[in-house]
Amino acid sequence: MTFFEVFWNRLIEIILAPAFNPDMFWIIMPLIFTLLLMTFYFGAYRREEMGYSSAVANSIVLLFVGVDLLRYVFNLTTPGSILNYQLHPISALICLLVLLEAITLMFASFFRALPKQVTFIFCAPASVNIQAYLAIAIVYTNIKLDWYTLLAAVVLFVVIYLVLKMMQFTQRHLGQKIKEKKLEELEEEKKEAKKVIKEAEMQKKEQAHKAKVEKEIEKISKEKPKKKKKK
Fold first, then answer.
1. Residue 19 above 60 pLDDT?
2. How confident is residue 231, by pLDDT bands cut at 50, 70 and 90?
3. Of the candidates 4, 23, 163, 199, which lies 20 to 30 Å from 32 by C-alpha distance?
4. Do 40 and 171 meet the contact criterion of CB atoms below 8 Å apart?
5. What is the pLDDT of residues 166-191, one digit of tens each?
6. Cα-flanking dihedrals φ and ψ of residue 52, to 5°?
7. Is residue 228 over pLDDT 80?
8. DSSP category for residue 123
9. Distances (CA, A) of 187 to 178, 190, 197
10. What are the angstrom distances between the C-alpha of 203 and each of 46, 115, 208?
11. What is the distance between the terminal CA atoms of the chain, rounded to a whole angstrom?
12. Which residues have C-beta within 8 Å of that of residue 172, sequence separation ≥ 6?
Protein backbone atom coordinates (compact mmCIF):
# COMPACT_ATOMS: atom_id res chain seq x y z
CA MET A 1 0.00 0.00 0.00
CA THR A 2 1.12 3.52 -0.73
CA PHE A 3 1.74 6.12 1.93
CA PHE A 4 -1.48 7.95 1.12
CA GLU A 5 -3.57 4.75 1.25
CA VAL A 6 -2.21 3.79 4.68
CA PHE A 7 -2.67 7.34 5.95
CA TRP A 8 -6.23 7.52 4.60
CA ASN A 9 -7.19 4.16 6.12
CA ARG A 10 -5.78 5.23 9.49
CA LEU A 11 -7.68 8.52 9.34
CA ILE A 12 -10.96 6.73 8.56
CA GLU A 13 -10.23 4.26 11.36
CA ILE A 14 -9.90 7.10 13.87
CA ILE A 15 -13.05 8.84 12.64
CA LEU A 16 -15.15 5.65 12.69
CA ALA A 17 -13.75 4.43 16.02
CA PRO A 18 -17.11 4.81 17.85
CA ALA A 19 -18.69 2.45 15.30
CA PHE A 20 -16.12 -0.24 16.18
CA ASN A 21 -16.49 0.27 19.91
CA PRO A 22 -19.93 1.69 20.88
CA ASP A 23 -18.80 2.04 24.52
CA MET A 24 -16.99 5.16 23.34
CA PHE A 25 -20.30 6.98 22.95
CA TRP A 26 -20.76 7.18 26.73
CA ILE A 27 -17.69 9.36 27.08
CA ILE A 28 -17.46 11.16 23.72
CA MET A 29 -21.09 12.40 23.62
CA PRO A 30 -20.57 14.83 26.55
CA LEU A 31 -17.33 15.98 24.89
CA ILE A 32 -19.07 16.61 21.58
CA PHE A 33 -21.96 18.41 23.29
CA THR A 34 -19.58 20.59 25.30
CA LEU A 35 -17.44 21.34 22.25
CA LEU A 36 -20.40 22.42 20.12
CA LEU A 37 -21.97 24.42 22.95
CA MET A 38 -18.77 26.36 23.67
CA THR A 39 -18.15 26.86 19.94
CA PHE A 40 -21.55 28.49 19.50
CA TYR A 41 -21.16 30.40 22.77
CA PHE A 42 -17.91 32.09 21.73
CA GLY A 43 -19.37 32.51 18.26
CA ALA A 44 -22.28 34.46 19.71
CA TYR A 45 -20.14 36.47 22.14
CA ARG A 46 -17.00 37.02 20.11
CA ARG A 47 -15.70 39.82 22.35
CA GLU A 48 -15.78 37.60 25.42
CA GLU A 49 -12.53 35.82 26.23
CA MET A 50 -11.98 32.58 28.05
CA GLY A 51 -10.87 33.09 31.65
CA TYR A 52 -8.49 31.14 33.86
CA SER A 53 -11.45 29.54 35.61
CA SER A 54 -12.62 28.08 32.29
CA ALA A 55 -9.08 26.89 31.59
CA VAL A 56 -9.03 25.02 34.91
CA ALA A 57 -12.43 23.48 34.17
CA ASN A 58 -11.33 22.32 30.71
CA SER A 59 -8.17 20.73 32.11
CA ILE A 60 -10.31 18.86 34.64
CA VAL A 61 -12.35 17.46 31.73
CA LEU A 62 -9.11 16.10 30.29
CA LEU A 63 -8.29 14.66 33.72
CA PHE A 64 -11.60 12.79 33.80
CA VAL A 65 -10.89 11.40 30.34
CA GLY A 66 -7.47 10.14 31.50
CA VAL A 67 -9.06 8.42 34.50
CA ASP A 68 -11.68 6.78 32.26
CA LEU A 69 -8.94 5.51 29.93
CA LEU A 70 -7.14 3.97 32.92
CA ARG A 71 -10.41 2.30 33.91
CA TYR A 72 -10.92 0.96 30.40
CA VAL A 73 -7.45 -0.57 30.17
CA PHE A 74 -7.77 -2.03 33.68
CA ASN A 75 -11.05 -3.75 32.70
CA LEU A 76 -9.82 -5.20 29.41
CA THR A 77 -9.88 -8.57 31.17
CA THR A 78 -12.53 -10.06 33.44
CA PRO A 79 -11.93 -9.49 36.26
CA GLY A 80 -9.88 -6.33 35.81
CA SER A 81 -6.17 -6.55 36.43
CA ILE A 82 -3.31 -4.12 36.88
CA LEU A 83 -1.30 -6.41 34.62
CA ASN A 84 -3.29 -5.05 31.68
CA TYR A 85 -1.15 -1.93 31.80
CA GLN A 86 1.87 -4.14 31.16
CA LEU A 87 0.10 -6.13 28.44
CA HIS A 88 -1.01 -2.93 26.68
CA PRO A 89 1.92 -0.55 27.15
CA ILE A 90 0.92 1.86 24.34
CA SER A 91 -2.57 2.35 25.79
CA ALA A 92 -1.11 2.73 29.28
CA LEU A 93 1.38 5.30 27.98
CA ILE A 94 -1.42 7.30 26.35
CA CYS A 95 -3.38 7.22 29.62
CA LEU A 96 -0.39 8.54 31.55
CA LEU A 97 0.32 11.25 28.96
CA VAL A 98 -3.28 12.46 29.07
CA LEU A 99 -3.23 12.52 32.87
CA LEU A 100 0.14 14.28 32.94
CA GLU A 101 -1.05 16.92 30.47
CA ALA A 102 -4.31 17.41 32.39
CA ILE A 103 -2.56 17.85 35.75
CA THR A 104 0.07 20.17 34.25
CA LEU A 105 -2.55 22.36 32.55
CA MET A 106 -4.74 22.36 35.65
CA PHE A 107 -2.01 23.62 37.98
CA ALA A 108 -0.58 25.97 35.35
CA SER A 109 -4.03 27.53 34.92
CA PHE A 110 -4.80 27.56 38.64
CA PHE A 111 -1.55 29.33 39.56
CA ARG A 112 -1.45 31.29 36.27
CA ALA A 113 2.06 30.07 35.69
CA LEU A 114 1.97 30.38 31.90
CA PRO A 115 1.27 33.45 29.78
CA LYS A 116 -2.39 34.10 29.19
CA GLN A 117 -2.38 33.37 25.46
CA VAL A 118 -0.40 30.13 25.86
CA THR A 119 -2.74 28.87 28.58
CA PHE A 120 -5.86 29.66 26.58
CA ILE A 121 -4.52 27.94 23.46
CA PHE A 122 -3.81 24.65 25.26
CA CYS A 123 -6.91 24.82 27.48
CA ALA A 124 -9.36 25.97 24.82
CA PRO A 125 -12.46 23.76 24.47
CA ALA A 126 -11.46 22.74 20.93
CA SER A 127 -7.91 21.77 21.94
CA VAL A 128 -8.98 19.80 25.02
CA ASN A 129 -11.95 17.98 23.50
CA ILE A 130 -10.26 17.06 20.22
CA GLN A 131 -7.22 15.71 22.08
CA ALA A 132 -9.53 13.77 24.35
CA TYR A 133 -11.36 12.21 21.39
CA LEU A 134 -8.12 11.18 19.69
CA ALA A 135 -6.82 9.56 22.89
CA ILE A 136 -10.13 7.76 23.44
CA ALA A 137 -10.24 6.53 19.85
CA ILE A 138 -6.70 5.12 19.97
CA VAL A 139 -7.12 3.42 23.36
CA TYR A 140 -10.65 2.07 22.92
CA THR A 141 -10.04 0.61 19.44
CA ASN A 142 -6.39 -0.31 19.98
CA ILE A 143 -5.28 1.58 16.88
CA LYS A 144 -1.63 1.02 16.08
CA LEU A 145 0.38 4.00 17.28
CA ASP A 146 2.85 4.93 14.56
CA TRP A 147 3.70 7.89 12.35
CA TYR A 148 0.59 7.32 10.23
CA THR A 149 -1.60 7.52 13.32
CA LEU A 150 0.16 10.65 14.56
CA LEU A 151 -0.14 12.32 11.16
CA ALA A 152 -3.79 11.31 10.87
CA ALA A 153 -4.43 12.68 14.36
CA VAL A 154 -2.79 16.01 13.50
CA VAL A 155 -4.73 16.28 10.23
CA LEU A 156 -8.01 15.41 11.95
CA PHE A 157 -7.27 17.96 14.68
CA VAL A 158 -6.68 20.70 12.08
CA VAL A 159 -9.76 19.73 10.05
CA ILE A 160 -12.08 19.71 13.08
CA TYR A 161 -10.59 23.01 14.28
CA LEU A 162 -11.19 24.63 10.87
CA VAL A 163 -14.73 23.22 10.72
CA LEU A 164 -15.48 24.72 14.14
CA LYS A 165 -14.10 28.08 13.04
CA MET A 166 -16.24 27.92 9.90
CA MET A 167 -19.27 27.19 12.08
CA GLN A 168 -18.46 30.24 14.19
CA PHE A 169 -18.00 32.38 11.08
CA THR A 170 -21.33 31.18 9.66
CA GLN A 171 -23.04 31.78 13.00
CA ARG A 172 -21.65 35.32 13.22
CA HIS A 173 -22.54 36.03 9.59
CA LEU A 174 -26.12 34.82 10.07
CA GLY A 175 -26.33 36.66 13.38
CA GLN A 176 -25.18 39.88 11.68
CA LYS A 177 -27.75 39.39 8.91
CA ILE A 178 -30.51 38.81 11.46
CA LYS A 179 -29.38 41.85 13.43
CA GLU A 180 -29.37 44.02 10.30
CA LYS A 181 -32.82 42.73 9.36
CA LYS A 182 -34.14 43.51 12.83
CA LEU A 183 -32.64 47.01 12.62
CA GLU A 184 -34.31 47.50 9.23
CA GLU A 185 -37.63 46.33 10.66
CA LEU A 186 -37.14 48.66 13.64
CA GLU A 187 -36.45 51.58 11.28
CA GLU A 188 -39.57 50.71 9.30
CA GLU A 189 -41.58 50.59 12.51
CA LYS A 190 -40.17 54.00 13.50
CA LYS A 191 -41.10 55.43 10.12
CA GLU A 192 -44.60 53.98 10.39
CA ALA A 193 -44.92 55.33 13.93
CA LYS A 194 -43.78 58.80 12.80
CA LYS A 195 -46.22 58.63 9.91
CA VAL A 196 -49.09 57.68 12.23
CA ILE A 197 -48.11 60.44 14.69
CA LYS A 198 -47.93 62.97 11.86
CA GLU A 199 -51.32 61.93 10.53
CA ALA A 200 -52.76 62.11 14.04
CA GLU A 201 -51.32 65.62 14.48
CA MET A 202 -52.71 66.72 11.12
CA GLN A 203 -56.08 65.27 12.02
CA LYS A 204 -55.93 67.00 15.39
CA LYS A 205 -55.10 70.33 13.71
CA GLU A 206 -57.93 69.86 11.22
CA GLN A 207 -60.35 69.09 14.03
CA ALA A 208 -59.14 72.13 15.99
CA HIS A 209 -59.49 74.31 12.89
CA LYS A 210 -62.94 72.93 12.20
CA ALA A 211 -63.97 73.51 15.81
CA LYS A 212 -62.66 77.10 15.59
CA VAL A 213 -64.58 77.75 12.39
CA GLU A 214 -67.74 76.32 13.91
CA LYS A 215 -67.32 78.59 16.93
CA GLU A 216 -66.84 81.61 14.66
CA ILE A 217 -69.95 80.70 12.70
CA GLU A 218 -71.91 80.20 15.90
CA LYS A 219 -70.65 83.52 17.23
CA ILE A 220 -71.61 85.36 14.06
CA SER A 221 -75.02 83.71 13.99
CA LYS A 222 -75.65 84.88 17.56
CA GLU A 223 -74.51 88.46 16.83
CA LYS A 224 -76.82 89.06 13.78
CA PRO A 225 -80.15 89.10 15.67
CA LYS A 226 -78.74 91.61 18.17
CA LYS A 227 -77.94 94.06 15.37
CA LYS A 228 -81.52 93.82 14.03
CA LYS A 229 -83.00 94.68 17.44
CA LYS A 230 -80.92 97.86 17.67
CA LYS A 231 -82.46 99.12 14.42
1. yes
2. very low
3. 4
4. yes
5. 998 998 888 888 888 888 888 888 88
6. -65, -30
7. no
8. T
9. 14, 5, 15
10. 49, 68, 9
11. 130
12. 43, 46
